[in-house]
Amino acid sequence: xxxxFYFLIVFLYLNIALMIIFPLWFMLVQIITEFFCxxxxxxxxxxxxxxxxxxxxxxxxxxxxxxxxYFWLYYKHQRKKI
Length: 82
Known about the structure:
By secondary structure, the protein is an all-alpha fold. It is 84% helix and 0% strand. It contains 2 helices and no strands. The protein has helices spanning 2-40, 52-81. It is elongated, with a radius of gyration of 18 Å.
């Protein structure tokens, strides 16, 4: 029972951590890209061109997907040790 609880904690930790990190990373990349494009083209930095909701939704989806994948690899590795 303790072993299953441990795997549940690891699964939740990986998913929640990556669901927080990926949207922040996607928004940061969009802001940096918009900044450099504004420097190159017209010199005006405008945040209205950035789609924050798309970045958040995509980041959440990628966080769940990658968190589950990393957990599967971790679980597979741990089961070989047992």
